[in-house]
Design brief:
This protein is mostly helical. The chain is about 70% helix and about 0% strand.
Length: about 240
């Protein structure tokens, strides 16, 4: 497995060259993807000799893996620092939603690397031992939050933690990943602070409309089994899905 997380220390001093290379690689791979990323550009951006990439990371694959693991590690560490278990459930939920919204907005490199990894079928993520090990503690925190909310009757009692996490990231992610195209389509600047604040409020409204106990009661009264509606061949051609990530 590649070297990840904080750089190793030598005589009490972190190898700054290695760290510069890793940061440059995160920028490069998040913008160009694994296939489009070039170690020559990374070395130039890091103000480092190309051979140092091979010295520290073994080559492009090792550097990409280290970059991927670093962005996941940093996000999981930031989530842990929230200490959600110490907060009342509604406050914890609001904090978690705001954190996710802000973190993804401020760290486009995370989105870029995740999109890159999806484009290659998560092949490198499957080889990582580190990233999967970070998920159970996060899932346990979410489960605890939901359980405390159920006991206090402030959150509905049938929320699946994985479904919630996927929905949270989806609703906080799309307007960033597709910002350029959506801005053109809707003649609006989706990076404008005013628009983003409205988006934040919308995210809270949508998620809490689902999470509140009354949403469970309403869903139980009106829920119908999902049915696939077949479309004519001409409709499928005219409205073929467009991949957004």
């Amino acid at each position: 497995m590649s070297k990840v997380g904080r750089p190793r220390r030598k005589n009490g001093v972190a190898p700054r060259t290695r760290e510069r290379i890793l940061k440059a690689a995160i920028r490069e791979f998040s913008r160009q993807g694994y296939r489009g990323g070039r170690v020559e550009r990374i070395a130039k951006d890091a103000r480092a000799n190309l051979r140092m990439i091979y010295h520290y990371f073994g080559g492009k694959e090792g550097l990409y893996m280290a970059s991927l693991e670093r962005v996941y590690v940093e996000m999981r560490r930031a989530e842990q620092a929230l200490e959600l278990s110490a907060l009342p459930p509604l406050e914890a939920m609001r904090t978690f939603i705001d954190f996710t919204f802000d973190y993804l907005s401020r760290h486009p490199e995370f989105i870029g690397l995740v999109m890159s990894e999806n484009q290659i079928g998560a092949g490198y993520l499957r080889r990582s031992r580190l990233v999967p090990s970070l998920t159970p503690p996060l899932l346990a925190v979410i489960e605890d939050l939901l359980e405390r909310g159920r006991k206090e009757r402030v959150l509905r009692n049938d929320v699946d933690p994985v479904q919630f996490f996927v929905t949270l990231h989806s609703i906080c992610y799309l307007h960033i990943a597709n910002r350029n195209t959506l801005s053109v389509i809707f003649h609006a600047d989706l990076s404008d602070p005013t628009w983003l604040e409205l988006r934040r409020r919308h995210v809270h409204d949508v998620l809490f409309a689902y999470l509140r106990p009354h949403a469970f009661a309403a869903a139980g009264q009106h829920r119908e089994p999902a049915r696939a509606v077949p479309r004519a061949a001409s409709d499928r051609t005219a409205h073929s899905p467009v991949r957004t990530n």
